[in-house]
C-alpha cells in the first residue's frame, strides 16, 4: 500500500519530485567531487614522492662545492640516512628550442641533470626510472602540452641537438609554481653540453623518520655549510605540488557547500509546497485516525527514496567529472594507488550529505503534526504578514547565495590572472622583469644593463635588485640561511602588511612566513653574517611573498661600501615603460645572452597558468549551477505562493480581475526580494569571498589579500542572473491562469 501511495504521489507531482532529486544529487555531486579530487591529489603527490624518494632537506648552491665538508657534516648527524650532491646545469632560455618553440619567453629556470644514484629520482610516465641513451633527453611532462611536444621531436641547446625520448615526472619541480625545471640526459651528453651553461648543485639529505627538519636546517646553517641559494624542505615541496590543483578543489568545495545550503532551502520550498497541495489528503488521514508518526513516515519514505536516487546520481556524476578534472593531475603525478579509498570516501560523503538533507526534511515535516484534521480539511486564511515576509526573505537569501556562489570564483579568477597579483609575489608594480642568472659575471651584465636603461628614452623608471644568501643568528644561537634581495626598494615598492620598505642601512623587511618562522615583528633586531662580518639589522616591515617558499627578505644594502657581487646568486631588473611604447619590440631590443626578459603579465601567467585555467572552468560551472538553481527555486517559490493564495486569487477573478493584472501584482511581489537579494549577494560575494580566499592565501604567505574586481564582469553576471530570475518569476506566475473563479465558492485553495 505504501508503495502504491508513493508511486501515485510521484506521478501526480512529477516536477516537485524531479526537482527534489536534482537538488539532492547536486549537493552530493559537488561535495563528494571535491572530496575525491582532494584524496586523489594528495594520494598522487604522496605516491610520486614515495617512488621518487624525495629528499627531506634540499639546499641549492651556486659556486664551488665543498663535498668533504658535507660528508663530515652528514657523518656527524645520526639522523642523516643518505645524502648526495646532484649537479644541475642552468641553461640560457634563449639558447633552448623545444620542437619549434624557443624558451626565450619562459619564466622557468631550465637546466640539464643526470639521474641520481641514491634518491630524488626522475621517473617516466610509468613512474619508473628511464634508461637514457646518448643523444636523448627526457623532458618535464608539464612541457608536453605547453609546447605541444611528441616523442621524436628535437631539443636544440645552442649548437647541440637532442632527441626527445620521453617525458619525466619530477617530484620536486613538476608544478609550474616551482621556479626550475630539470631535463634528464645521460652522463656523456651532460659533460659535453656543460660548457653551454652554468653549473649549480642540489645538496640533498634523506633523513630518518620523526626527524625535526627545522632543527636539522638550523644545524646546517650553524655549521657554515655551502648555502648560496634557497633551501627547500619536503613539506614545502608537497605544498607546492598540491597548491595548483588544490585551489581548484577549494573552489569546487565552496561551490558544493553553497549548493548544499541552497538545496536545503529549495527542498524546504518543495516539501512545503507538497504539504500545501496535500492538505485535504492529510486531513482525511488524520480524520480516519492515522497517527502523526505514520503520516510523517509516509512522507519521509518518499524522501528516503529520493535521497537514495539523488545519492546514486551524485556518486555517478562525481565519477564522470572526476576523470576530466583530474586528467592534468594524473599526467603530472601519475595514478594514485588509493582508488578503493577514493571510492569509499565518495560513498561516505554522499551518505553524509543525504543524512543532513533528510534530517532537515524531517524537521520541516513537523508542520504536519501541528495541523489538526479540521484545519487541513477546511483551511482558512490565517497566514500573517510576518510569515509571508519571512518567505520573501528566504527567496532573497537564495538569490544572494547564488550571487555569492558565482562571484567568489569570478573574483578569484580576475585577481590571480591580474598583473596586480604580483604584489603578493614580493614584486612591485613594474611592467617588465629582466633576470640575470646563468652567468659567471652577473655583476658586469647587470651594470651594463643599468647603463643602457639610463640612456633609454622609452624607460619611465627602473631598478636592479641583487639576491644573496647569508646566515642569520637566532636568539638561541642557531643559524638559518636567509635569502636577501638588496637594492632600492622604493622604486617599485610591494604592499606591506606592517611597516614599510627598507630605506636606511641596517633596516630589513621580512616576508610574512619568514617573520613567522623567525618569530620576529617590526622593531625587532636580528644578526646577519655577511662576508665574515656580523651585522645587526632592525625589522622595518613585513610584506607578502608566495615565491621561494614564501621566505624572503629585503634590504637596501648589506655593506657600507655598497653591495659586493662575489656572493650574488642572481639579479633582477624591474622596468616600467612610458605610455605608447610597444612592449614586445622594446624587449627584443634588450635580448642578449645571460638575460631572460619577460613582461610581468606573462610571468604571472607562466607561474599560475594551469591554476588560472582550472579556476576559470570552476567559475563557469558555478555560473551554470547558479542559473539553474535560480530558475528552479524562483519558479517553485512563485508556485508555492500562488498555491497558498489560491482562494484569494479565485476571489479576485470572481470580482473581475484578469490574469494579467494578477500576474503583474505577483511578479512585482516576487521580483523585489530577488533584487534585494542580488544586491546583498554582490556585497557578501566581495567581502565574505575575499575573507575566505584571503585566509587560505595567508597560509601561503599572501597577507592582506584583496580582490581585483573586474566590474564589467560583475555587472554582466548580475544582469544574467536578474534576467534569469525575472524569467523564472514570469513562468511561475503562469499558475494563476489555472485557478478558476468558482473555486472560492467551493472553499478550496
Would you mind describing this structure in some detail?
The chain has 749 residues and is α+β, with helices and mostly antiparallel strands. The protein folds into four domains: 1-57 and 234-377, no CATH class; 64-227, no CATH class; 386-420 and 609-749, no CATH class; 438-593, no CATH class. Helix content is 52%, strand content 19%. It has 21 helices and 22 strands. The strands form three sheets. It has a six-stranded mixed beta sheet. The model is unreliable at 560-564 (pLDDT under 50).
Q: Which structural traits does this protein have?
A:
single chain, 749 residues, alpha+beta, 4 domains, six-stranded mixed sheet
Return the average pLDDT rounded to an integer. Answer: 81
- What count of structural domains? 4
First and last CA, distance: 28 Å
Computed over alpha carbons, the radius of gyration is: 32 Å
